[in-house]
Structure formats: C-alpha cells, structure tokens
Predict the structure.
Amino acid sequence: MPLALLLPAGLGLVLLVLPLVGLLARTPWATLPQRLAAPGVLTALRLSLLTATLATLLCLLLGVPLAWLLARVEFPGRRLVRALVTVPLVLPPVVGGVALLLVFGRRGLLGGWLDATFGITLPFTTAGVVLAEAFVAMPFLVIAVEGALRGADRRYEEAAATLGAGRWTTFVRVTLPLVAPGLAAGAVLCWARALGEFGATITFAGNYPGRTQTMPLAVYLALETDVQAAVVLSLVLLTVSVAILAGLRDRWITSP
Amino acid sequence: MSAPLLDAHLVVDRGGFRLDVALRVAAGEVVALLGPNGAGKTTALRGLAGLLPLTAGHLTLGGVDLDRPQRRAWTPTERRSIGVVFQDYLLFPHLSAAENVAFGPRRHGADRRTARATAHDWLSRVGLAEHAHRRPRQLSGGQAQRVALARALAVEPALLLLDEPLAALDARTRLDTRAELHRHLTAHPGATLLVTHDPLDALVLADRLVVVEEGRVVQEGDAATVTARPRTDYVARLVGLNLHRGHADGQRVRVADGLTLTVADRLDGEAFVAFRPSAVALHPSRPEGSPRNTWPATVAGVQRHGDNLRVRLDGPIGVSADVTPAAAAQLRLAPGQPVWAAVKAAETHAYPAG
Amino acid sequence: MRPRRRRVTATVVVAVVLALAGAAGCGRSASGGGATGGPGAGGTVTVFAAASLTEAFTRLGRDFEEARPGSTVVLSFAGSAALAAQINQGAPADVFASAATRNMATVTGAGNADGDPALFARNQLVVAVPKGNPRGVAGLADLARPGLKVALCAPQVPCGAAARTALDAASVALTPVTLEQDVRGALAKVRLGEVDAALVYRTDALAAAAEVTAVEFPGSAGAVNDYPIVVLRDAPNPDGARAFVAYVRSERGRGVLAAAGFQVP
C-alpha cells in the first residue's frame, strides 16, 4: 500500500480511535463493578437497545418501499423526493425533535387528532423515542437500499417472471435476496445512528428513567454530578455497540 | 401443418428498427432462429416471452392469444406457459441448483415437497443429481447450462425458448453439451424456439431453420434445404458455400459482366448458383480441356482451413477456393498473384431465386 | 462594541469534557482564548454563567461595556455542572457565576478560585403554566392531579434538586412525564404546550412572560437556590474579572438582577 494512502488512513484511524482511548484511560476501573450495578444503568441500556432495534424495524418497513420507489419508478418530482429524504441528515437533531413536536405534539398538526381518535399520544413515551430515532436514522437506510436496488441486475427479475413469479413474489424471493448485503449494511448504519441519538429524543420524548431515558441521555445527565459515572455509561454503550457490530459477519454486509 | 402450437406474427418497432417475422412451430418441433447480430433474433425472443410488447401482429400459443395489440389482448410473462434458457443462464445466485429448478414449479402451485421431487427428477435427467445442493457459482459452465435447461423444463412449458444456449461455453464443452441438448429438445413435447448465430447449433438441434436478417425472414426450411440452397450471402457464408445470383437462360447463368457459368440444372430467369470451395480448381494459366467455367482471378488472401488452405479470390465474381498446401506451394499462391479459377458444371447447383 | 454571547450547547460540552479528560493528567493547557490586553479597565472579560442567568447577565454585560469603554464581555451560558467541569479542566475563563453552591464547591475545592465566592442572587422556584393558567393550577398539590402533564428538571441539576425538596416538603407525590436536563428545556415544554406545568425558576418564567404565567406556591420561599460568583485563579484578565464581579454586586447590578426576578441579598 502506497505511503501516500497509508499515512492519511492511519491518521483517520487515530482520529476515530482517540476518543475511545481517552475514555478507557479515564475509566475508574476500581469502582467499575459497583458502578455497573447501579440502578438505572441496565434500564437505560435495555431501553436504548430496544428502541434502536424497533426504530430500525420501522425504518425497514417504511424505508425499503421508499427506496424501491426512488430506484425503480419514474415519477415527477423524484429528485425532490430524494432530496427531502436527506433532510434529517442536515437538520440539527434538536430541530428535528421540535419539528416532530409541531406535528405529533399535543397541539401538533396530527397529535391532537391522534389523541382524540385513537387515544394515541407520542411525546414522553417509548414509542415517541422510537419515532424520533427512526426519523434521524431513516435516510441512512433509504440511501443504502436505493443504491443497492439500482445496482441490482434486473435480468434476474425477468428470469423469475418467465418461471411464473408475479411482481410481489419476484420482489420478495429474488430482488430482496439479491440486495440483501446492501440492505444489511444500511440497516446496521440505521441502528447505530438510532442508538446514538440524543437531541431529537430528549426534545420530543423527554427524559424519564425506564420509559424514555436512553443511554445517551443518561450519560449527559450523569455529567452533571459525576463525570466518572458518565465515563462508565459511555463505555458500556460503546462496548455493547462495538460487540454487536463486530459480530456481524463481513459477508452479510458486503456483496459476494 | 395442422394448427401449430405456436402461431405468431411478431411486429415490433424499436427506435429505427422494425421486426416483422412470422413464426409457426408445431408441438414437438424445434425451430432455430438464425441470423447475424442485430438481425432481431433477441427482440423476437423477448416478444415471445412477453418481456417486450408487440407493436402489431399477434402471438397465439395453444389457441390462446397471448399478445394481440389490435384487440388489446395481453398476457404478462408470468402467466405464459413458457420456459426460457437465457444466454447467461441467470441462475439465482442465492439459491442452490435444486432450489433454482424447484422455483418454477413452486410458482405454478406445487407444494414444497412436490417441487423438490420434480427438481431432483429433472436434475437427474440432466445428469446433475449429485450437484443439487451446490450454488450456481460452484458449478462449471456446462453444469450451469444444464441446470438452466432443467429449470426451464421443470415447468413443462408449452413453448421453450433458448437464447444462444451454447454461446457461453468453450469449444470442448459445447460439443458434449450440444449432443445432450439435442436429446432433451427432441424429448420435449412442446414447441421449441432456439435463437442462435452458430449454424452448427442450428443444424444439429433444429428440425427447421428460420433465417432472419434486418428484422425480416429471408429464408426458412429444413436444414438440408437451406444449406443446399442458400438465398443470401449470410446463409451461404454460414454453410460455407460460394453463392452468386444471376440471370439464367437454359443451362447458362450470367453472373457478372463478362462471366457466364454453365450449370448442371436447367432454368430460366433470376437464379442462384452455388458451389463448394472444394469444387474450385486453380491453374497458373488458362486451362485447356473440359471445364467451361473458367475466369481470371487475383489472390486476395490465404487462410488455413482444416488440413487445407482456403484462398479468397477477387475477380468478376469473388469466390473462395480450397487447395492442398502442396498445390498452393506449386502455384506460389500469395496475395496479388494472378491465377485462373475453374469450376465443373457438374459441381454447381443452380436454383431459382424467386 | 456589542457583547458577544455564545450559548454552549450540550453536545459541545460533552465533547469538550471527554476530549479534555485525557489531557487532564498532562497539566493545564495554556490559557489564552479571547483575552487581549493586560491589566486595566480595558480588555476582554470571559464570564462562565449558569443558563438561568442568560437574560440578566447579557444585560449586565452590555451595561458593563458602556460603563467602561474599551472593554468586552464574553459570556458562556450552560449548565452549572458542565461549566464547573470545564473550568476544572482548564478552560480559560475570568469569572464563574453558578446556579448552586454545590457546583461552586467543585471549583473552589479544586483550588481554581481566587478568594471566596460571594452570594449575589437567589432564585426561587415557581410553577410555570401556559398563559392564562387554563388548567387552573393553584399550588403544588394540583400538580399531582391525574391527567395533568408536568415537567421537572432532572434531580442532578440544581433546579431539579430544589424542586424535589419543595415537593417533598409539601408531601406531594408527583410523577412527571419528563426530567429535563436543564431548566430551559422544562420551560420550553410549557411554551410548546406539551406539558401543563413545570417547576422552574421565577426568572425563567418572567423571561417567558409572554407565553407563560408564573404561579407562586406556599413554601416556595424555602425552595431557593443560592447563586455564588467568584473570580477564577487562572483568569487571563484578573483586573477585568474583579471589576465585573464588583459591577454585578453594585447597586446597578442588583437592580438588573431584581428586575429579572432574582432575589438580591
């Protein structure tokens, strides 16, 4: 590997790894066990993992059809829609949270109607956390899947048709398996983004242990009183995330 | 033929290209669609498969209109009783060979167990029973081709379509596979249409040839007829004959300014004259004696052709001549060398061009 | 010259704290920052102040600059705990004004204060409700009404600790829908109409008087936070720092604070 590439690559790696090193260097190893057993740590972690996973499932449910629409269907304003999909990426998360309140809040465009008709309120609920996380993480999934669908060989779909498969069956049994690696990569990015979300969550869903206090929120609050507690919480979140991501087989998310 | 299984008049307009061919294939018959690149063979196949709608004409299979634009009749691909073997096979990479073959029967309503049994049955028939669990990327070219064939046949299609089925194989595999394929195609009860640019495929596998050039049928008939009486340059080159068109008057055909050939057949009017390269004799100077068909020519090029040499000659008519290496050496054949070409009337074959 | 104010956001604070965590053992980073000029009435004064002091100190900063031409006041507002942590990690500041004695103790305990902190204001808790008090909230007991959504500050922040004390003293068992990480967050929820009430400082309720009504409650006099202020040991502009602290505690400064809703001792 040429030095001209090796050097910046090394620097990039260092940049990404240094904060982690900083955390590890300041971890109170002696008091770690009782800190980990403190109430709230496991609750926040469990909530974080649950909401991130549910948010990813929601993104898959809505994002894959959206990606298919963008990749396969020619309709007027397609470019505009594609640009709109990237809005959560550029919007500051807190602004995203405020926007969600303006729509789904008590006085929001839809919030009042949802409450009156179905008795559903979203702010300050775990469902609200899932919604906020899904909002910020969806672009990752849509963009990844759209790219994968564009690159998929359409001739396999023709072959499926000649064998008697209808459009839906072809999509499920041929197209999706073919783009599975790209889809998995997008889902992983989506999950990671959802896990780390802070601004939109705290603005839209608030902070309440066991219901809406995810790990990032717990970390921030811990900083108020006890920096070391914050370090421990951060370390827990990092360890769990890295373990899960590292456990993903390479071949599941890269094309054969 | 009585009520052919496939009765089609395919008219497709694509950009500046227009396909207009009529095809009739009986049950159990194998028809080869032969033609140079760009002739429209793939367009025809895609039209038959429903991957392309017809602009005009009709497509009737087993008495049912699958595509008739005038009456707005249209059956989508997935509901046509067809099986397609694609040039690149297009075996689903995420499924095993058996699952690929079972795909069709499953879509046609068979339950999992029946479909699996059918798949294994077909894989045995193509000699790949022990490779049933393998993924397509673990199969050789020849094996993949056979799985693709099994997959297409497993749905018991009324119309089997093959797109250059042997093109992706190396010469050695092609030989074996061609023989195997012939066996299966003969056994297939439905109609078969085979698209190819290789005349050997057509000759071995097909009962009947349909030659297409620039979107039109230029010749059709059984292999023997087409090869014996080619009607276009393409077909003639395909079958390795010298072909010339001229005006016949009894046993003499005028093929060019200053050249009239005496032929074995008697006819009048526009005619084709065909003769093998091996029938062309070369002499250093004007030959004495019997051959009445003789003319001065210039050597344009020399190529190896099996054990012999094939010499391309320019002259009043351009011909190819086969000579032994010894004869070539004796004549000192090199590009630009003047020679005299001669053909015996008995070795020519003349037939009407109309 | 207009005072420049920077509102330090939560994420920046976290990043700075964590990044500096590794540098802590390597000694103090060089102070510098925005300090220009040396001793004297001129120069830049960098003030770290609790978020609840935003309006009051912004006004004070402007008045200070008018009173002493040639000086600039740079204000950084954030949660008191975050500011204390920054100062202890070596952030360049001249003055620290905290919303609770606890956070000030963190700074003085680390030896980063110059002299003793002085108490310059007190902030009382009130119940903030949407303008006009549509749900008719009269006191703390009403907050526990079923169906009423209440926002509190998290107990880890000064405003939340005071709220907890007040609720316990009144024996009110309240389950809030959210525990906000700073008082502004709690107030924002009221302003957006997402909650029916929040326990915030009187100063915050007054600052949002257009959208919010403040409801005093008995015993609120006991739910008070003391605000200390101190000049920092490593201040780049010690003279300017002392002048600013003196200004805050002067008659004019007290006037501004009282107008904002603080109690001045």
Observations:
- Chain A touches chain C at residues 18-19, 21-23, 25-26, 98, 101, 105-107, 123-124, 198-199, 202-203, 205-209, 212-213, 217, 219-225, 227, 230-231, 234 (CB under 8 Å).
- The two ends of chain A are 24 Å apart (CA to CA).
- The first helix of chain A runs from residue 3 to 26.
